[in-house]
């Protein structure tokens, strides 16, 4: 069935207190998606972020970002006072997230709510149902704070290597802090499930996103080092990245620990099954980042400063996803299969049955034919004008090589389009393709330039900050989106 949706990270929503969250503005966004005839809201990973603020480098595979807890709801519930929230400095610019100010203020105000919180039966149920990850995560975060936020690899040996007596002593010593982290996760869960249920009631499905890898500095690696390629000192033997190519002479050094796939295979992929089963409770569809890493993964010696000395190793391949289908049934997955693909990767994606991705910004290379040009698509794919890692259409168009820009004009016959019309030309191209699903970043519907870019890959300091202005997604814009959506037979709303 043909359908479409909009990509907008939760953090990019407008809100009263510095960062997008599960506030009334999120519900308004869902309502406007419905008015626009959309079927899906695609978001980025929801995990707690650390250094660099990247949702793809989270402290936990399972935990939720406490920044997304709506403070106004806590005021309504009597856990906070409005003046307590207003007294905090969450940043002055409504179009950008000031993460430093959020970090310094959010936890202080949440701690006030925590002191007033009276646990009930549903809280106890949450603790019990999520104990398989929650207890390790909360202990990890409490110890991390006590250790002045350094990575667990720099903790004292007894803590680093999880000496049972030492951990038990820390659980007693840090009980209040541990309870505070439990409280945060409970609030996150309650508020997110309420928002997702509302979206589903309006006919809007949630497309979530999970990275293939976990962060080295995370509760996952600390609690389960056996899952990763670590040495006897619990240091990585090798880390993840991508090899040198036309875009980067030294490759990309991500630094994430690599999986011990032989161990995962010996357990029947238990960890992966649990992870995917859990995320299906959070999302309706799961986009898995760097899907090719399941076929082959790039291994870089730990300690190298570039990716130049890495090599490819075999991953679990289709066996993992055959196991997923056998144990979990038909999980709705989008395979992020961008970049250079070998024949074996292409075959794995095909065998999985999952739709791959097509990005229009990769299509217009005047030097060679591209698989990303719409006339080459098959039905079972998801087309984007761009992703969170791309510039906006206008920003990208401004930076195109002249020959590539001329090629795009010839392909679309839009020589006379004004700058204001350009994003809509590409939106129409995506909408009109045979791809079953079309996802458009909100910035492109708003006609914004590079100032609204979400992420500049392989850089630090100015990413994940953009926010949509309040009332930018107008009823008029929603009606225009709905008109185009109906025109290309993607409107699933009556």
What is the fold's blueprint, element by element?
Elements: E1 3-7, H1 24-35, E2 40-42, H2 71-76, H3 82-86, H4 99-116, H5 121-129, H6 131-146, H7 157-160, H8 164-173, H9 175-201, E3 205-210, H10 219-223, E4 238-242, E5 252-257, H11 261-266, H12 270-282, E6 285-288, E7 296-301, E8 311-314, H13 318-328, E9 333-335, H14 343-352, E10 356-359, E11 381-384, H15 393-398, H16 402-412, H17 422-431, E12 437-441, H18 442-445, H19 475-487
Parallel strand pairs: 1-2, 1-12, 2-3, 3-6, 6-9, 10-11, 11-12
Antiparallel strand pairs: 4-5, 4-7, 7-8
Detailed description of the structure:
- This protein is α/β, with parallel strands linked by helices and 494 residues long.
- It has one domain (3-487): Alpha-Beta Barrel (TIM Barrel).
- 40% of the residues lie in helices and 11% in strands.
- It has an eight-stranded parallel sheet with strand order 9-6-3-2-1-12-11-10. Strands 5-4-7-8 form a four-stranded antiparallel sheet, with no helix packed on it.
- Helix 5 crosses helix 6 (131-146), helix 6 (131-146) crosses helix 9 and helix 12 packs across helix 13.
- It is globular, with a radius of gyration of 23 Å.
- The protein starts with a strand and ends in a 7-residue tail after the last helix.
- The mean pLDDT is 96.
